[in-house]
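Look over both lines before class:
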Amino acid sequence: MRLLKWEHLPSEMQNLQVEKYYSKLKKKRVSLFFKRIFDIFASLTLLLLFLPIFIVVIVCIKIDSKGPVFYKQERITQYNKKFKIIKFRTMVQNADKIGTQITVNNDNRITKVGKILRKTRLDELPQLINVFLGNMTFVGTRPEVQKYTNEYTNEMMATLLLPAGITSRTSVFYKNESRLLNASEDPEKTYVEEILPAKMRYNLKSLYEFGFWQDIKTLFMTIFSMFGKKYKDEISCSEKATSDDLDAMLIKK
């Protein structure tokens, strides 16, 4: 995995806030190299290992509801590029045409099998294909639709220096998303104004501290958290995601 030269970055990413993260990542060439090597070999190995699970899930989806097995949606990844994220379909066919792009727990568009897939996160398995192809990585900021990346501040654009990820520290530590969305009368507004800035604090901190072994640690933390392990929150989610706050936190550390 290699960083583009600064002058080759998209113009919307060439700002002072992004530059401080870019400068840190430029010093991590070895970690970036091993990150991509790990992505290739681990994704291919897991695709072969989970092949029986793929077959079982495919059959269950086809029996449960009409429509394709896989759900593909345009998301944003490294360098603000568009790609098609691949998931197992957990909603009725054409669900995105009959509702918002934000999903709450009691969404009636979710199928019976889809509820199980979401709860166990098995719907994310096909993203191993995205990782192998290089438009995603195992650990990185979760990919957003362009509608929400358009709301990114200059500093948030730094998260697009690396490919979108399957999991992240945000997935481990930030637990308020479902609760806030379920309680909100306007999930879209709540996501943009409250959830996205809070999640970005974790994403930006992880990016600033990026390292190959940090990625490996995050992977294990994700696995353990799926089995019920609780981790102490690294950041107060009530704090506003600003450059000054992040700098102060990093200096103290």
